[in-house]
# Entry
Amino acid sequence: MAHYRPDTLEHAPLGREAAYPEHYDAGLLYSITRTANRTPLGIEEGALPFVGEDEWHAFEVSWLNARGKPRVAVARFRLPADSPNLIESKSWKLYLNGFNQTRFESRQSVIDTLVSDLSRAAGAAVSVELFDVDDEVLSPRRLPGECLDDLDIEVTDYTPSVEHLRVSDEEVVEEALHSHLLKSNCPVTGQPDWGSVLIRYRGPRIDREGLLRYLIGYRQHQDFHEHCVEHIFMDLMARARPERLLVLARYVRRGGLDISPWRATPGERPPEPLRLARQ
# Structure
């Protein structure tokens, strides 16, 4: 039976040995409520201070056509940030592996199945796209704006500290800044999650050295990708008070899946879909 009821990590497949399924089984999907991680940040469900999505790419998608011939694709999934649940990543991987020896009448029937199962698990509409493995849309691109990584700074702490976030002056600017030094850790297994982060805003100029120290502070922080991005968004809104803000992270794939959450003030949108070389 599918774990469509929001659950805790206690019974999640993450960090446990699991046999890979040989056939399709929607019951492998494991939902986790977002509320527990949002409450400590002062985020109230039903009154979210941001809009956004969790964008996933799956690079190990395969199924059998009606005649038993294997097909392969790269999938892009988008979960809305206001969905009540996120889907635990290992359960998602196991679920997708169940397609490998399952016959489908058409490519569209694969998409329809994914949309139905994932939307039910997330508690909101999930969009699904399938791409050929050599589709140009999957070509690596660069994050826009200026990179912070060459700033010559001293770093002494590796947990997030809002004290590093400050404005350097009250002049209102519009700029995009990014860093490839983002690293957090899985809250269950402790495995490292490597990523890049884009911050685009309009408001008082944010001190760049302090911002980079703050981002490096996630290096020993344990949390899901989605909640790290929400943490960054909430801290920047509280400390810098920008008029507009977008925070987007592109995490390196693990187990054939990459996750790229973004959160923004209403009206803001991320750049056109992009994938970085490390993904």
Notes: Residues 162 and 251 are 22 Å apart (CA to CA). Residues 1-6 have pLDDT under 50 and may be disordered.
